[in-house]
Amino acid sequence: MANTTSAKKATRKIARRTDVNKARRSRVRTFVRQVEEAIASGDADRAKAAFIAAQPELARAATKGVLHANTASRKVSRLAKRVKALSAPSA
């Protein structure tokens, strides 16, 4: 248990930051899930729109330190690949 004043303040700050990060992570997962659901349904236009909305959300999470920059980049890349494959004419 924190005894000093500064340690008590640090635990309050950590708790606040944890809540903010949890909300951001949840938001990112929601946006990514919307893209994946659109891909699964086969709706190319909806998938593209959802992907465009998800990209800045992933970038913001990386900037804020919720996700590692490479992780966010990898997720964007993989989603883009799947959206592109969906909208490409099947031969």
SSE topology:
Blueprint: H1 5-41, H2 44-63, H3 69-87
Give an overview in words:
By secondary structure, the protein is mostly helical. The chain contains three helices and no strands. Helix 1 runs antiparallel to helix 2 and helix 1 runs parallel beside helix 3 (69-87). It is elongated, with a radius of gyration of 18 Å. The N and C termini lie far apart (65 Å). The relative contact order is 0.13. The mean pLDDT is 94.
Class by alpha and beta content? mainly alpha
Helix share of residues? over 70%
**Overall 3D shape:** elongated
Mean pLDDT: 94
Order of helices and strands: HHH
Biggest sheet record: none
For this structure, the quaternary state is single chain
In short:
By secondary structure, this protein is mostly helical.
Characteristics:
3 helices; 0% strand; 91 residues
